[in-house]
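haha ok so turns out i had the wrong file open the whole time. this is the CORRECT one, sorry everyone. sequence first:
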Amino acid sequence: MTENQYARPGDVSPSEERTMGMLAHAIPLVAMVVSAGLLGFVASLILYLIYKDRGPFARENAANSLNIQITTGIVLLISIPLILVVVGIFTALAAIVVAFVLHLLGALKANRGEWWRPPMTLRLVH
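then structure:
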């Protein structure tokens, strides 16, 4: 008997949930680097929509990833007018660095199967 023999269609195994949780942070992390911060949000949103009903661990990590991206986007929007007074450059860079670190920590913790809620992020998606 396999571990998913009695699972509902669409459910994922615990190891697959850990993998999806890790990818929910790793893919937006890579997308942020490759696209200068623009595509991380898209990757987080797609993963959230695909895995939100397939397992609680994958859903939590996809929601955390999306919340990191939303918070980063808000800080970047606030930074745009602040660039006129130079402060915006520092807030924008800080937002990107913090998002990078949070996604990296999230991917590592998800890979180990640890539940984690990223600090300094708005909790808009559950």
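The chain has four helices and no strands.
again sry for the mixup
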